[in-house]
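batch_manifest entry 22 of 60
target: ABC-F family ATP-binding cassette domain-containing protein
source organism: Paracoccus rhizosphaerae
requested by: lab member K.T.
priority: normal
notes from requester: please return tokens only, no post-processing; we will run our own comparison against the previous entry in this batch. if the run fails, retry once and flag.
--- input ---
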Amino acid sequence: MARAPVLQLSDISLTYGGDPVFDGLSLTVQPGDRVALVGRNGSGKSTLMKVMAGLVEPDRGEVVLSAGISTGYMEQDPDLSGYETLGEFARDGLPEGEGYRVDMAAEGLKFDPVRPVATASGGERRRAALARLLAQAPELMLLDEPTNHLDIQAIGWLEEHLSQTRAAFVLISHDRAFLRRLTRATLWIDRGEVRRQERGFEGFEDWREATWAAEDDARHKLDRKIKAEARWAVEGISARRKRNQGRVRALAALRAERSSQIRRQGTAAMALDSGPQSGKKVIEAQGIAKTFGDRTILRPFDLRIQRGDRIAFVGPNGAGKTTLIKMLTGEIAPDEGRVTLGTNLEIAVFDQARAALNPDQSLWESLTGDPEMRVSGRADQVMVRGTPKHVVAYLKDFLFDDAQARAPVRSLSGGEKARLLLARLMAKPSNLLVMDEPTNDLDVETLDLLQDLLGDYDGTVLLVSHDRDFIDRVADTTVAMEGDGRATVYAGGWTDYQAQRGEDRPETAAPGPALRPSAAPAEKSKPAQAGLSFTEKHRLEALPGVIERLEAEIAKLSEFLSDPDLFTKAPAKFEKASLALSDRQAALADAEEEWLTLEEKAG
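--- output ---
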């Protein structure tokens, strides 16, 4: 016998003083559903979840929760006022004797229950709220960005926990790997309409593109019909004194239908300018180490970063990823060793703490008040990669409307704050990008665009992220910090790191300098070659993979440049590809010479 829905929304309409957020929305959540709730930033995902939780009253419609069903909602900014410690907040409402549930969740999510609320960070507060919800074990969980501020290990724990629950849940997240692993159905909010597909997030992007293609085809047919009917109406004036009024009314109806269609929001017009080219060597760290009190953040560590490298830094929260990057960029000094910066560096930083944003300023002031963006004598202009641009026009490039320009930064959603920070960062030329958790709160389309921009960026990228999918798409090297002070370099992204770690786990590997970032996956350990140092031995093992990768890139670039019309059709692309080919060929010659030198020394 079919079971009653856990939650049912019928004919929901909601307006916040302007265009409706939802109009005539209906949906159901069934027992055991595992639903991804997706949509563009600002489309109303969090609002819809609050309607489901009963925290927002719709203007019209009905929200029905089945009798006896308990619901838990995790919001993005939990209120912990009135509680002394995180544990006191998380245990509130639990039956006596079941506080151990919070302790189990605290261990998996990595927060300290005895931490005073007054000194807890925003991330710790969110983890406590998530632990509270999981400990209560409701039959319907509503989770709004639960992976924000979780490190990869904690995300893995949460994935495992949710994969085993019998409860239904609706999940908002920017983490595609998390959504793919957990969801079996997808709710997609698009221009106030909610569509449902009985497939998890894995099939979302194909579904979205097919839906939009069908929509574009229908719009094209409607436009052709309107043109044909309009032509008949005009020509009919001379052909007939009395036109067919029914067809005239039909034409008016067609035009009304066309004007009522809501145009899809485009993607942000983001762009990166790599500015003047840096030197080939960007950063070289030799034996750098750092200690805070009696805690070792980093043991002696070597790293060479060259122009064009994309390096991801991964590890638990508090392992020292941000500290390491600050040492590499010269912001803080190491206790031991030295860092040499290359020539002609222009560094741009995306800060996960959003420290560059003043919540009391308007979006307008946030851009025009930046000394590096200010245009002398023009209060309504900002300098965008060397060219003055009206501040509202630039904000529109990042999907902000006219009304938001004078709104305070504090009124923005998490995704909107991330876009504003990207607007500030991308206005300035740079050749070294430092991106600390850039993916938090961004929607899938903006993440795709950011990934493409980083792929085409001529400069160097240092990335701190807990988004495994994004690391796989962007990084060519991963520096793993396991929290014991040791940093280990692996070739490739997150998946490559996991595969290599199975053979050479950081906790069992011998201490010593790390591999060079461009190193390919090492083969299984061989006996140390006579005459080679630890670093040279690893380098010799890695070089065949480096050479193979460079040869493959040279082949692709050569094929691309073989088009005889390329120079005429796209001279900028031709020049960029030619420079890239020259760089790869030089790198290949260096790698082959280095391999011969090391092989002779080993022999």
